[in-house]
């Protein structure tokens, strides 16, 4: 795969993944096409040497792995981690509002949304709906309206004269509610969802919608942009960009050593869930592969996790926001993220493993350290390291406008990280002890 085809497939993946559910579905079908076998957590697992497998939880988290050898205790795993969720607006359970001549939806802010960027955008709705069929069976299906059906108009400057000098604060209860249509139109949200399920899934008959998990998203397509076509502009780069890179690295691995991709939900709100990095999903999978406590600990101590999440690129308009000696540039290489207060799990040894692979392959490496007078974000890296005790590197691709409805990354960086992660998946030696 060359860089152009890699990036075009990335754009398609981003467009096909408006929610974590859709992202996991897209990854699932890529794995099935590549010959991976789906496992069911409710069933007994039979793992064969040379096999390739994946398992999902909650439809929004996925773990895939290769088994070139079943001696996981002595082989360990080369792990690549990312998260499937992104900051967004989620539809509340009792969603319908009729106010001042318009039908609107009540929404809840999910994660650290850069809220003003959601104004004046063409929005659609996607997610998972759970319902009773006409046969009395409870089931769920994914839906995606795809078309622009909602918007949150800004208020005119004439009614907010100080907006450019004083800043614009968006009240998440009152001022971010999307408009769907005029109040003269009939509106039954359950009926709208039922019709959408029927439109997308002719194999089921809906008796009644019981619940849903729906997100709003920007319908503008992901794109290669810039005068010299150097940038990728898209929604949800944080962190579907890393999910895609990790997936492609897994698919391209030569399966010399057991390699595992872990993409979990709910990172943007702390990962504390049954399918999040701070939940039992990864440990449950590893313990089924290494049944005895002795084997489990041996496998973990012979493993390494590369936790891939986005990194703050040096913004030319906001250069003072960075430590100038640790300010990554777009298209100048992946970024090793370091924080001595353990907001990132990187240490000197995991840094050395990645740097050695990258530099020997001819790829640049950058380092990010947040300014000492600013708070530092975090990732699934320290959560996973703390949960299972695996040596971890936090790495990311330099990005502008993180948590905006539309983010910006470099065309070179994702492909370069992918190539290094392929080498990592084949790496025999980590740190000699």
Automatic annotation (TrEMBL):
InterPro entries: Peptidase_M18, Peptidase_M18_dom2. It holds the Pfam family Peptidase_M18. Its EC number is 3.4.11.-. One of its GO terms (cellular component) is cytoplasm. The keyword Protein biosynthesis does not apply. One of its GO terms (molecular function) is zinc ion binding. Keywords: Aminopeptidase, Hydrolase, Metal-binding, Metalloprotease, Protease, Zinc. Belongs to the peptidase M18 family. This is M18 family aminopeptidase.
């Amino acid at each position: 795969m060359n860089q152009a085809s890699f990036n075009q497939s990335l754009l398609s993946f981003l467009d096909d993944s408006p929610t974590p559910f859709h992202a996991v579905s897209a990854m699932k079908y890529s794995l099935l096409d590549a010959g991976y076998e789906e496992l069911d957590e409710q069933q007994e697992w039979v793992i064969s040497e040379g096999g390739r497998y994946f398992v999902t939880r909650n439809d929004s988290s996925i773990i895939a792995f290769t088994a070139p050898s079943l001696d996981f205790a002595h082989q360990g795993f080369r792990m690549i981690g990312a998260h499937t969720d992104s900051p967004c607006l989620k539809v509340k359970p009792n969603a319908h509002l009729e106010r001042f001549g318009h039908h609107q939806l009540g929404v809840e802010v999910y994660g650290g949304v850069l809220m003003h960027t959601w104004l004046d955008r063409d929005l659609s709705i996607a997610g998972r709906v759970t319902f009773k069929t006409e046969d009395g069976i409870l089931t769920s299906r994914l839906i995606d309206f795809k078309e622009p059906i909602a918007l949150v108009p800004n208020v005119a400057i004439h009614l907010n004269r100080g907006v450019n000098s004083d800043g614009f604060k968006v009240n998440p209860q009152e001022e971010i509610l999307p408009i769907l249509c005029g109040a003269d139109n009939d509106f039954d949200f359950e009926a709208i969802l039922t019709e959408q399920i029927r439109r997308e899934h002719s194999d089921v008959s809906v008796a009644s919608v019981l619940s849903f998990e729906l997100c709003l998203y920007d319908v503008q397509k992901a794109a290669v942009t810039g005068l010299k076509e150097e940038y990728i502009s898209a929604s949800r780069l944080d962190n579907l960009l890393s999910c895609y890179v990790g997936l492609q690295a897994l698919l391209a691995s030569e399966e010399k050593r057991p390699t595992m991709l872990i993409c979990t939900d709910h990172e943007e709100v702390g990962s504390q869930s049954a399918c999040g990095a701070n939940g039992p999903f990864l440990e449950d999978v590893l313990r089924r592969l290494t049944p005895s406590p002795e084997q489990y600990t041996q496998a973990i101590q012979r493993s390494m996790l590369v936790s891939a999440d986005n990194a703050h690129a040096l913004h030319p308009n906001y250069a003072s926001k960075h430590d100038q000696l640790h300010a990554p540039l777009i298209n100048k290489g992946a970024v090793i993220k370091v924080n001595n207060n353990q907001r990132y799990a990187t240490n000197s040894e995991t840094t050395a493993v990645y740097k050695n692979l990258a530099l020997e392959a001819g790829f640049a490496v950058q380092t990010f350290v947040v300014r000492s007078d600013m708070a530092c974000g975090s990732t699934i890296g320290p959560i996973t390291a703390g949960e299972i005790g695996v040596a971890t590197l936090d790495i990311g691709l330099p990005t502008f406008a993180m948590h905006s409805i539309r983010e910006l990354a470099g065309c070179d960086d994702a492909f370069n990280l992918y190539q290094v992660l392929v080498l990592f998946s084949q790496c025999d030696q980590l740190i000699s002890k």
